[in-house]
């Protein structure tokens, strides 16, 4: 197995035992980027020189006995809405032409402190405001969308062009591309991970989290990221200690909620079959499956858009007025639409969110986790704008991809997407595990146990090329 094909945990173990060096691992990932980037378009920029210097420094530190932890010497990528000192943060937009970050974001700083090696910045749907990331192609099928808005991060991880990556998630933007590319994506509890130094889309819905090849890897990255940050007033002071986030154990006694409504409505048959098969396996592993009714589902879409659209427009108010022509048409129309949302509508969305949070809190009195499809369909062909369901309903691709992810953003609950199968054409299917607030340990434990017993995809996309 070539170094770029190793999971984070495997690479960390090889580094610890001395069978692999940070320089060798980083060089392998950089070579992999060179081999696949032209076909996939995952990166905005690659920083090969600084990455090699950071890897050499990590190698010297490890040789001297200074081991910073499992991320020490591991190559990673940042979604290009996340600041890294001295590098552009373009948000994949002409609006940000010439922008240069003066300081690290909190998450970039914490990864640097952990000794991780930054290899580049990955493409996002412009300003993270979309679900396809059109600059980037799906790692499993280049004729398909990558998903978004963290599409570049998901594709880089799936293709072996990064050992792990960070993304952001406002309505599914970590979990959607994770599901469509067959990798793991974790949206933590709102406030668990700082967003300081991250270009905002919607302040009350934005989250930062990891994209990895395994659940175990996601836990290792989250442990380095989690914690209070006074520069982000939304971060929580009572976050769990990082050690508590490392998954271990089985599914014995775990109560898993299976939605009787909403999450299996207007879902492709192959997606439903794969997720229900995974639930059957989890039951065989000791979990108790509990049928649950998802509350207030008729308000999900209106609440998500009622919060996100005006908040995004407020964040872009100055540049939208100064240089509207620099925005891509799909993003510009959304930003302009936000100017039409009244204060009353925004307050109604806030009230609806409060009611939804209370109702979901009551739901979790009966179960420990909720399991459901991440997205209702696999990756659509690039350029497809709508999907028509068997009941005659037509839905935009963006609305379809955000529909099953939005509740976890509205409520702020932790949500993990992991691959659980393939459709007939080989495209991956993702299952979503949603937990209680600060329930990352339980979510990760369940995902890790399933993955260990029934891992579906494995391997790096196209690594046999």
Automatic annotation (TrEMBL):
This is Amidase. Transmembrane segments: none annotated. Residues 24-444 form the Amidase domain. Signal peptide: none annotated. One of its GO terms (molecular function) is catalytic activity. It comes from Streptomyces lydicus.
